[in-house]
Structure formats: structure tokens, C-alpha cells
Design a protein that fits this description.
Radius of gyration: 24 Å
Number of strands: 17
CATH topology of one domain: Glutamine Phosphoribosylpyrophosphate, subunit 1, domain 1
Distance between the termini: 26 Å
CATH architecture of one domain: 4-Layer Sandwich
Structural class: alpha+beta
Strand order of the largest sheet: 2-3-1-9-8-10
Oligomer: single chain
Strand content: 5-15%
């Protein structure tokens, strides 16, 4: 796991770009503290790399890596889990490998098998830049699910810059003075992160997952190579799922350094930990609290004891989390508003004291309809979009006037379609109400939103609705989770792998019929059945607690002054896009205890912190 950066120039040489690349490498040393390097063609391309050594920790695995013929160069952030298969095929072609790692396999696979084979067949998490000296052509790509981030900034008359960190793109000389795109700020305030295909600074973006770029003297083009979409009606036995979960875990245990797991005590991490421990002796890490309502470390300890797995639990206090706010700003080089990043930073720091690699249980809630909002309640809500709007209005009004359960929400009332309604269900707390009030410009939609809506425009029945929900969860909500974990872990020089998001598990999930995953309001039943074979039904079916950050209370007490002053005195470059009076009203309603708007307020606060720390960080260095 590493960090990459590079500049391709359309008209100029890159001799004078080395100082900037040096700054980028120093700035992201936390992504790769073990070694760093720079390579250039002495003309129009230069690339840099910082390394967190995981496979082949010798110098043979260092990057940028150049082919033996000298005509190709790669910088690669991530892991390829089925590299050994292609290494054998390449050896049959006469390739002699100098290293035992996966980077060299990726390099020669791109040369000899081609881009299509690599993108369609390689199983892993990656962001890479592959340069062909003979063609003077650069290919940069992200993995199909977006596990590894990659950002670009472009100027058709000058250069393209890419990096694992967004601040490197926005501080580059041809982009440093670009304006803020407030439509993208609006999208960020709604979703809590900067969506793929968008950038809060104009002419920049997070490359969408499942896409790659081809860059040469003619310009550049962005192409999609993989669509994350639910398209089947498959039904799979527990034994079949267990075998595939086991295969995914086994493949992702490959490492020349110690490996552990995050063990929350919940279903997903528990199964990963059990399966990993069957393959090799691992250690597990748990975060806990002193709050009985949210603490699950006793469940994690029970499981660890049952399977003889060393478990290291860290109690995280309010003081710990408060003290991590500054680290949070530093770690997230683009605006990011999911405050669960705070405990993620702390548990990553704790785990890094003993291991370099962690297996995480992220993914099943999106893969197998595990969230409460993905339950059959949505099927009932969808039906309300097939009746006259006035009926919904009447039901909404009646619920306001009586104690009867609310059957039509304000969100439903003001959504034109069910697709729009579900998209809005992914928004941060309060953003549904306040973004259009506090922001002067209309928010941009997620890059994937319209594609999903169009794909399912003719979908009918329960199956069509649940398939669309799956697509929203995987392409929009999951992206925030993946960005959160990448930045929190890599800030602490820790590689986090996600076995549930392997190619084969993704393929199975995309074909799994929704009813196999659901019982009433409970989701991912198929995964829970696998875990129950090891732990029993009681452990699996207990009520989930979950780690909660008390942000609502903090903003009314400890953080009240800090947050209010930062937001109301934001830099002018941001202030021109906001309605100050509405901002003040929103904050007052929350801090006065009348409403809960902590989600949207934290998003604005994080935006201001991001701008102050990252926007001009190169000039100020």
C-alpha cells in the first residue's frame, strides 16, 4: 500500500516539476514511510512514489518500477491478490522476475496481456499509472469498486496531474488559482464526501471507480471498464457462500508482514476474523467505550476467547476523539464529513503499533441489503409514488395532526420519483432541509445517480426496486465508507483490505436475489447463517449497538464556540457561496437544542477546516 503522484505535460518538459513531486512525496510520507522514489522520461512525464512495504519488503519491490527493456514504467498503490496466477503465465513467456511482489506482475501483465485483461481479470484494490515510453502514452486507473482513491487535475493547454491525495492536485501551479465549484460543494454537503467524477475545485475530480484514463499528446479521455450493477436472480447455499468467503479471506492474507483484523463484535468483522484465523494465526483489534449503550467489546472478547484469537481492545474516550479532530483535518485531503472517521483514525493508530495489514469487514451491508433503510419498508414507500400526490399530501397532513404513525415523510412528499427519494435517504442528517437554504448554487448530483435512475427507469415490481437500491448503495454510499477507511488507515501507515469486496464475492452479490438476504426488517440473512454455524444463533441475532460519536451534544457544548466561529468566519473564497443568515439560523436551532442538525453543521465545519489546512498548503510550506 502506497501513494502515487505524477505529471504529464502536453506542451512542456517536466524538468522543473521535481520540486513539486518532492513536496508531494514528503506530504504523503504517512502513506509510504518505508521508501520513496521519482522517475521521469526527461521530457514530458514525471512520477513519484512512497512505499508501505507489504509484499517483497526488499528493495526489489521499490517503485517507480521500470521494465527491463526500459520502455515502460509503473507506479502502483494497492494489492493484486491473484497475481501468482499471472506470474506463472508470464514466466512461460520467458519473463524473469526480480521481485516476489505483485507490482512487477502488474507491470509485465500490462505489457504482454494488455489493459483489458488486467482490468477484467485482476482481483485486487488498486490505483495505478502505467507509462509507455514508445507511445508517449499514460494510462491511469482505479479499481472497480473504488477501494483505492486517485485524483486528477487537468488543463488541456498544459498538464495533467494525478495523485493519491487531492491536496496535491489542487495546489499544482496550473490549478492553484481555480475557483471553488459550489455545485460540488452542495453535493458534498448532502452525501458527506466528494463523489467520483466531481471535484470541489474546478477542473479537478476523484476518478470514478471502474474507470481509467488514456492520456497522450492528443489529449485525454475517461473510459468506463466496469459497471457495478445488480443484474441477477441467483440463490446460493450457505456452504457455497462460506467457501467463497473463505477463498476471499485466504487470498487477502498474502503478506510478508504481520496481519490482523478489526473485530467490532458485529456480524461482518466476526466472520472475517473467524475465517482468517482458520487459515493462519492472526490478532484482532477492537475499539470500545465506557458507555454500556454503545460498547460491544464484550461481544468481541467472547468471540476472540472462543476461537483462541488474541484480542487487543482500546477504550476510546470523548477526550480521545476530541483530540483527533486536528488529525482528521490533516488525514482527509478533500472535504469529508462522516465523523465516524474520528474513531476510525484512533483504532487504526492503535492497530498499527503491532501490524501493518488489517482485514476489515466493510461491504456486506451494501452487498446484501444490510441497512435498515434497505429493508422491505422501502417496498411500501415505493408504492406511494404510484398514487396521486394529493393522497400523499393528505396522509402527511394527518400525521402532523394526530399521533398515528407517519406513513408519508416530508422527504417523500418533495421527491418527484422513488429514485430521487432513495437518493435523498443517503444524505447527511439535516442536509435534506438545509443545503438549498445555506448554499446559493444548486447542488450537483452524484456522477452515478442519473445512470442508476436511467438503468432502472423501466424496472417493475419488488425485484426492480431492490435492485435499484443495491446499485445506489454500492455506487454512492459505499464510496464514502471506502474513502473513510483508506484515509484513516493510511494516515497511520496501515493497509486495510476488504475481503467481502473481492471480485468473486461482488459477482455473487450482484446476482443474489434480495429475498434471500432479508427477513422482515433484518438484512444480510445469508451471511448471518454462515456465521451462526460458528457462533450460534444468539450471537448473530442480538441487537446491534454500534460505536456512536456524540456529535450532537458536542456541538451544543464542547465544540459550540469553535464550530460557530469557524463557520461564521469562513474564508471569503468559501463565504461567497453561502447565505450567512441561513447558516447562523441553522447553527442556532441546533445549539439551542430545538433541532438536530449536527450532520450538516459538521460538514460545513469540516469544509472550512479542509480549506484552511489544504487549499494553499504548497504555497505555505
Amino acid at each position: 500500500m502506497c501513494g502515487i503522484v505524477g505529471i504529464y505535460s502536453f506542451r512542456n518538459d517536466t524538468f522543473n516539476k521535481k520540486a513539486y513531486i518532492d513536496w508531494c512525496l514528503k506530504d504523503m510520507n504517512h502513506r509510504g514511510p518505508d521508501s520513496s522514489g521519482i522517475w521521469g522520461n526527461e521530457k514530458n512525464y514525471i512520477t513519484g512514489f512512497v512505499r508501505l512495504a507489504i509484499q517483497d519488503i526488499s528493495e526489489c519491490g521499490n517503485q517507480p518500477m521500470v521494465s527491463s527493456c526500459g520502455n515502460y514504467c509503473i507506479t502502483f498503490n494497492g494489492e493484486i491478490y491473484n497475481a501468482e496466477k499471472y506470474k506463472l503465465l508470464l514466466q512461460q513467456k520467458g519473463i524473469i522476475f526480480k521481485s516476489s511482489g505483485d507490482t512487477e506482475v502488474l507491470l509485465y501483465a500490462l505489457i504482454h496481456f494488455g489493459l483489458d485483461t488486467v482490468l477484467n481479470e485482476f482481483d485486487g484494490m488498486y490505483a495505478f499509472a502505467f507509462y509507455d515510453l514508445l507511445k508517449d502514452e499514460l494510462i491511469i486507473s482505479r479499481d472497480r469498486l473504488g477501494i483505492k482513491p486517485l485524483y486528477i487535475g487537468f488543463n488541456k493547454n498544459d498538464d495533467i496531474i494525478y495523485s493519491s491525495q487531492y491536496n496535491h492536485v489542487i495546489n499544482y501551479e496550473s490549478l492553484a488559482d481555480e475557483a471553488i465549484d459550489f455545485s460540488v460543494i452542495g453535493s458534498y454537503l448532502q452525501l458527506g464526501y466528494m463523489s467520483g467524477g466531481l471535484g470541489v475545485v474546478k477542473n479537478t475530480q476523484l476518478i470514478p471507480h471502474g474507470h481509467y484514463l488514456i492520456i497522450n499528446k492528443e489529449g485525454y479521455s475517461i473510459k468506463k471498464y466496469f459497471t457495478v450493477q445488480h443484474d441477477g436472480k441467483g440463490s446460493y447455499t450457505s456452504d457455497f457462500l462460506e467457501k467463497n468467503f473463505t477463498d476471499a479471506v485466504r487470498s487477502q492474507l498474502i503478506s510478508d508482514v504481520p496481519v490482523g483484523t478489526f473485530l467490532s463484535g458485529g456480524t461482518d468483522s466476526s466472520l472475517i476474523t473467524i475465517l482468517a484465523n482458520k487459515e493462519t494465526k492472526i490478532v484482532s483489534f477492537t475499539s470500545g467505550t465506557n458507555d454500556h449503550e454503545t460498547d460491544e467489546k464484550e461481544h468481541a472478547k467472547w468471540l476472540a476467547n472462543k476461537f483462541d484469537i488474541p484480542n487487543f481492545a482500546k477504550d476510546i474516550s470523548t477526550t480521545d476523539i476530541m483530540q483527533s479532530v486536528n488529525d482528521n483535518t490533516k488525514a482527509y485531503s478533500e472535504p469529508f464529513a462522516d465523523f465516524s472517521s474520528l474513531p476510525s483514525l484512533l483504532i487504526s493508530k492503535y492497530a498499527r503499533q503491532q501490524v501493518k495489514v488489517i482485514l476489515s469487514g466493510d461491504g456486506p451491508d451494501e452487498l446484501f441489503w444490510g441497512y435498515e433503510r434497505t429493508s422491505q419498508r422501502m417496498l411500501r414507500d415505493a408504492k406511494k409514488f404510484h398514487r396521486p400526490w394529493l393522497m400523499n399530501l393528505a396522509d402527511f397532513a394527518l400525521s402532523k395532526l394526530s399521533v398515528l404513525p407517519k406513513v408519508v415523510s416530508k422527504r417523500m412528499l418533495f421527491s418527484k420519483t422513488f429514485a430521487d427519494y432513495y437518493y435523498r435517504s443517503l444524505f447527511l442528517f439535516g442536509s435534506d432541509i438545509w443545503v438549498t437554504k445555506i448554499l446559493k448554487e444548486k447542488p450537483a448530483e452524484s456522477y452515478f445517480k442519473q445512470h442508476i435512475a436511467n438503468t432502472h427507469i423501466d424496472s417493475k415490481g419488488n425485484e426492480g426496486i431492490m435492485n435499484m437500491i443495491w446499485d445506489y448503495e454500492m455506487n454512492i454510499h459505499l464510496q464514502r465508507i471506502l474513502l473513510k477507511m483508506d484515509k484513516a488507515s493510511m494516515y497511520n501507515s496501515l493497509e486495510v483490505r476488504v475481503p467481502y469486496l473481492s471480485n468473486e464475492i461482488l459477482n455473487i452479490a450482484s446476482k443474489t436475489i434480495w429475498s434471500d438476504c432479508m427477513s422482515g426488517s433484518n438484512g444480510k440473512i445469508n451471511l448471518k447463517k454462515v456465521l451462526a454455524k460458528y457462533t450460534g444463533e444468539e450471537f448473530v441475532n442480538r441487537e446491534k449497538k454500534g460505536f456512536l460519536v456524540p456529535m450532537r451534544a458536542w456541538m451544543r457544548n464542547e465544540l459550540k464556540q469553535e464550530v460557530t466561529e469557524k463557520i461564521m468566519n469562513m474564508p471569503e473564497a468559501l463565504a461567497i457561496g453561502f447565505n450567512k443568515g441561513q447558516l447562523s439560523k441553522m447553527i442556532s436551532l441546533h445549539t439551542g437544542g430545538r433541532e438536530d442538525y449536527c450532520g450538516i453543521i459538521w460538514a460545513v465545519y469540516s469544509l472550512v477546516n479542509w480549506y484552511n489546512y489544504h487549499r494553499n498548503s504548497y504555497k505555505n510550506s
